[in-house]
Amino acid sequence: MAGPLLRIRDLHLTMTSFDGAAHVLNGIDLTVQRGEIWGLVGESGCGKSLTGLSISRLVPTPPARYIRGEIRFEGRDLLQLPMREVQTLRGKRIGMIFQDPTTNLNPAYRIGEQLVDVALAAASHDASVLDCPADASRREKRRAARRLAGDMLDRVGIPNAKARLDNYPHEFSGGMRQRVLIAMALIGRPDLLIADEPTTALDVSVQAQILKLLKGTVADHDIGIILITHNLGVVAETCSHVAVMYAGNIVESGPVEEVIERPAHPYTQALMAAIPTKQSKRGTLKGLGGSVPNLVSPPPGCRFAPRCPLAVAECTQALPSAVEVGTAHHAACIRVTGTEVASDV
Amino acid sequence: MLYFILRRIVLLVPVVIGLTVIMFAIARLLPGDPVALAAGPNATQGEIEALAHEFGLDRPVWTQYFTYVGGLLHGDLGTSLLTRRPVAADIAAYLPATLELVIAAMLIAVAIGIPLGLATAVWRNRWPDYLSQVVAIGAISMPRFFLGLLLQLCFAMWLMWLPLGGRLPIIVIPPPSVTGFLTIDTLIAGDMHAFSMAMRHLAMPAIAMSLSPLATIMRMMRASTIEVMNQDYVTTARALGLPRGKIILKYVARNAISATLTVIGLYFGWLLGGTVLVETVFDWPGLGLYATKAIISQDMMPVIGVALVIGLLFVAANLVIDLLYGVINPKVRYS
Question: Do B251 and A100 touch (CB under 8 A)?
Answer without folding.
Answer: no
